[in-house]
Design a protein that fits this description.
Four copies of one chain form a homotetramer. Chain A is built from eight helices and eight strands; from the N terminus they run H-E-E-E-E-H-E-H-H-E-H-H-E-E-H-H. Chain A is of the alpha+beta class and 231 residues long. Chain A has one domain: Class II aldolase/adducin N-terminal domain (L-fuculose-1-phosphate Aldolase, 3-Layer(aba) Sandwich). Chain A has an eight-stranded mixed beta sheet with strand order 4-3-2-1-5-8-7-6, with helices on both faces. In chain A, a hairpin with a 4-residue loop joins strand 7 and strand 8. Chain A is globular and about 55 Å long. Chains in contact: A-B, A-D, B-C, C-D. The interface between A and B is medium-sized, with 34 and 28 residues. Chains A, B, C, D: Keywords: Metal-binding, Zinc.
Chain lengths: 231, 231, 231, 231
């Protein structure tokens, strides 16, 4: 089987989504890229998770063209392609409609940084990109979704290598990472942070954002030059 | 065994309800119709899911009369019969008391279309029919429930082939589809959309409805003439 | 083994509590009575569910005295005994600290009848007894808890054969029934109704109570002389 | 294998965290101490639960120095060490980011004592220590977290042998006990009490705290000289 490595990686990462409670039916997809070949493997569209296999993954190039595969690729494939093409340090992308993260996207609010669970992964509020202009929607919608994500990062001067998640307003979350497995991990973290933030505001509508010293410390102990979190 | 096809279809669809977390005990029922025979198979009343079998399904005609079966059919059988009789394109109906959809029904509110998870399945708010008039309740209640559902669709000029779900005010949801399996799918989608919408309002009480361009795009990519969602 | 029937019944009913998600650790207990002997079997105190057996149940008389058993009976035993002694038509009692029902008890509010899920089981709001007077608490607390429950029913002119559940203010729910299995069923129904009612108010703070005609119809179809719900 | 007893105890207690739904990925850690040796065993940092074994636990002394172990210990190890050194009656400590307890920590509120589920375990509101001063954060952060916890107890005149849990503001909960298993039990109790308290306020924003007579009675029946709760 050709492209075996990314097929296997994409398959295993996709299968994590239902196990982590992040998807209902087929409402999610993961891709895994091989930069040396300029290709990625992605879940086929509308196929139930229990019928997936490495062989059913579809191979796509960074311009969004199908290279190999009998099944139609995920309808979000063009969004993945755009992000791989422009964000050259990522090798995995995940899209879900997980309940709490999607609720924040529908509420069109950034998720405020309320605690260290958030700060262990991000130093900023998790951004919510505004809904797209009608002209973008009516055109090549999924392709433009990729630009909507990149534009939001550009406007806010965020680095996609540091902040590996976003909410697309009225839609749902996207996450990414150096591997497909890391992108899935980020989706699960985002869902938990989203639920905690909603409950935090329910318990205290005036809850303050995390203080700067704690943001800095938690980020550095996990990601800084002297990181001591994890092996 | 006679009517084996619809017995099997109804049995399998009913068994999905507890797996999808949509029912407590026996609080739900699914039916599967065979239009060529003018009959449907429905769950017997009050029998636990783990004691069901294809043979225990009850066969009913579209006037609500029992054609075959030793057990009493679901108490909601007349509602199913009325809908099959008048909505001639459906072959499966589901009734549950799933928690979040039922909460919206009890709140007597339509579920606003807040995001693309909703728009992938409906272009309109999910309708909540008002509670029935006392005269309808005191008469043939379940039979009248079918008309309450159809009247709500008629008044709002909704097409049951496009919108496959409704909340009955103070009661609970009904869903339907071209197959029993599709009707079950719709019940699970409705429950998730109901939960997301509640959390959306909790996170932002002023959350706007989804913009028209997004409603149109998500519907068309899944249901339009050039649909590219699913296989 | 003596008293085998009620030991077995109490054991099986107790084991349903963790399966139904109604208890954390040992925070719940079920008893099963044999009226001909004037005895009931109850869970021992503080023993994890996975270490229970029919033989570990403790046999108690309706005055609360231990008749047989090496283990200490549930700390709520006196409440069970009082209820069996005065409410002569019940043969099973359940006490849990299930999350949503307990939240209503802590909020010291009756659960309003908002829909048919509630009406299928009760024609009235689920009563919340006020917290006990200090003198009752400082005396024989669990014994007095039984009277607090009965006093609440007497003051509101409720019949324990029709309403099989109560919240004890600041504490948690008790349910009962003609069998221990029915009492467990009632605990699960109560927990679901409690969650639905909380969400109903979150979705619509002005949600109206269920109209009388629906209360009457749903009760009669399940419990009236011409009941047609269940087999 | 040396230190087998505390390795085994720490391993088993750590494995309870995912089973009780208290952790996502590796967001939690348990330690088990042997006072006669002045050592404790703690989970290694960032290792998934399904890859843990007694042998992978790291052995640490009460000054926070690693005595045995190839893996890096949990990043929270210094907090554990400080608490073991100063609170000489505890032999187990747990740290999690469980959703509801963490939401209260992020809201920077004590959890009010609203009912008997809480009173069975604590006679006071569950304390939330304020976020640390910047100078403490910028120094030896995890070491200072231990002092932040102890300072909160000292200021409020709480006894760590009676109140076995705390929220660290903006961060998450810590619990402890005479054994690692008891500390895990306390983490699960705290999470349930946190969820119940949030829902209590949602159902009744003016819910009163539990009356003193009930606080005293529930505490005494479980912990007093004449305790009769549990075996």
């Amino acid at each position: 089987m050709r492209y075996e490595h990314i097929r296997q990686e994409a398959y295993e990462a996709n299968m994590q989504l239902p196990r982590l409670g992040l998807v209902l039916f087929t409402f999610g997809n993961v891709s895994a890229a091989d930069r040396s070949q300029g290709l990625f493997a992605i879940k086929p569209s509308g196929v139930p998770y229990d019928q997936l296999s490495p062989a059913s993954m579809v191979i796509i190039d960074f311009d969004g063209k199908t290279v190999e595969g009998d099944l139609r690729p995920s309808s979000d494939t063009q969004t993945h392609a755009v992000l791989y093409k422009h964000w050259t340090a990522i090798n995995g992308i995940v899209h879900t409609h997980s309940v709490y993260a999607t609720a924040w996207a529908q509420a069109q609010r950034d998720i405020p940084i309320y605690g260290t669970t958030h700060a262990d992964h991000n130093t900023v509020d998790i951004p919510c990109a505004p809904p797209m202009e009608d002209s973008m929607i009516e055109g090549d919608y999924e392709y433009q979704t990729g630009f909507q994500i990149m534009n939001c990062f550009a406007e806010r001067k965020l680095d996609y290598r540091e902040v590996e998640m976003i909410l697309v307003g009225n839609h749902a979350p996207f996450t990414w990472g150096k591997t497909a497995a890391k992108a899935v991990y980020n989706s699960a973290v985002l869902e938990t942070v989203a639920q905690m933030a909603m409950h935090t505001e329910q318990i205290n509508p005036n809850a303050p954002r995390l203080k700067e010293a704690l943001i800095k410390k938690h980020w550095e102990r996990k990601h800084g030059p002297d990181a001591y979190y994890g092996q």
